[in-house]
Specification:
The chain has 10 helices and 11 strands. It is of the alpha/beta class. The chain has a 6-stranded mixed sheet with strand order 6-7-8-9-11-10. The chain has a 5-stranded parallel sheet with strand order 2-1-3-4-5, with helices on one face. The protein is globular. It binds guanosine-5'-monophosphate and manganese (II) ion. Guanosine-5'-monophosphate (5GP) binds next to strand 10 and strand 11.
Length: 316
């Protein structure tokens, strides 16, 4: 990766807007905070706009309040978009803000290279890993709280070091981050095991929708968005639940739906035999990794689910 154009762009410019995708996860938030810190450490003026609010469980990250839901009004020299395979993933219209150039830093293999500068490393487990490589290249002295940001990014996108993107390199990076001052048990506890009672009530209701399809090779969970108000939970409380859909023996593809009366979002998971990233990409706006991907079908649940099962039947 040739980091010189990125270093030059940072050196030459003064005002930066940082953004990432809707329904922020640990990689999204950790990457944004690490990058904001770096730019600020160089004396840049930095704002950060994320269309969706952060999940409460990530609020422990130092300076998390810098990620706001205030749409910026002024112009910026550089818009840095992190962890987004395409520009629509940010969930706001970048054309409404005056921007000198877009820098795209990501690890999704289906990244559309929408930036003037594109740093896309599909072999990286997380966008946080790509940023850490950049910091190492620049010889940045990473303070403990930024190591926590990057560790959170990698830990989240590897599902707590259990997905197939977990490898020696990733563990070595995390070892380095740990040595910079990360309390690994604390981060794990905060990210993966601190649910509100409402979040657990939501999970109980979502588990009750468990179904098997196509001879037990597909498993599904469903969350009508109206359930959130019913149990007093937040959208982000459902994060991670999709991973449960591929835990049953014999299941090859897991599907978690989140639907309004009008449209149905699919979180797709695969044990490896089906490339769900490819499958999601065949639907407009969809995409992701081979084992974890997502897409939206603009139809009510029953219709959208029937369509998805048809697609899966063809793929299995
Ligand atoms: P999740 O199911 O956890 O929301 O997302 C799994 C993976 O698929 C993540 O890498 C996420 O960025 C990607 N993904 C989820 N939904 C969409 C979508 O609607 N469009 C695209 N392009 N990627 C998505
Ligand atoms: Mn990511």
């Amino acid at each position: 990766m040739d980091w010189t154009p990125l270093s030059d762009a940072i050196a030459k410019n003064h005002t930066f807007l940082v953004s990432s995708h809707l329904s922020p996860d640990g990689d999204n938030v950790g990457s944004q905070l690490a990058f904001i810190w770096y730019l600020k450490s160089l004396g840049k003026r930095v704002e950060c706009y994320c269309a969706d609010p952060l999940p409460q469980k990530l609020a422990f990250l130092q300076d998390s309040a810098l990620i706001t839901q205030n749409k910026p009004s002024g112009g910026f020299d550089v818009l840095v978009i992190l962890d987004c395979s395409n520009i629509t993933r940010v969930g706001w219209d970048c054309g409404e803000v005056s921007i000198g150039m877009i820098v795209n830093i990501d690890h999704h293999r289906d990244n559309a290279n929408f930036g003037a500068l594109n740093y896309v490393d599909a072999s990286a487990a997380a966008t946080g890993e790509v940023i850490f490589s950049f910091f190492k290249h620049c010889g940045v002295a990473v303070p403990a709280h930024v190591a926590v940001d990057l560790y959170t990014a990698v830990m989240t996108d590897t599902g707590g070091f259990r997905f197939s993107n977990t490898c020696g390199r990733v563990l070595r990076i995390c070892a380095e981050l740990a040595e910079l001052g990360v309390d690994c048990a604390d981060v794990y506890e905060r990210v993966f095991s601190c649910h509100t009672p409402q979040a657990l009530a939501l999970q109980a209701r979502v588990w009750s929708t468990l179904k098997f399809h196509l001879g037990g090779r597909v498993c599904s969970l469903d969350m009508p968005l109206s359930l959130l108000d019913e149990v007093g939970a937040k959208y982000s409380d459902s994060e991670g639940m999709a991973d449960n859909t591929v835990t049953a023996l014999g299941v090859e593809v897991g599907v978690m739906t989140k639907h309004s009366p009008k449209e149905t979002h699919f979180s797709l998971r695969s044990k490896g035999s089906v490339d769900v990233g490819k499958l999601a990409k065949s639907i407009s706006g969809g995409g992701g990794h081979s084992c974890a991907a997502g897409c939206t079908i603009k139809k009510p649940y029953a219709e959208a689910m029937a369509e998805m099962l048809g697609i899966l039947e063809g793929a299995l």
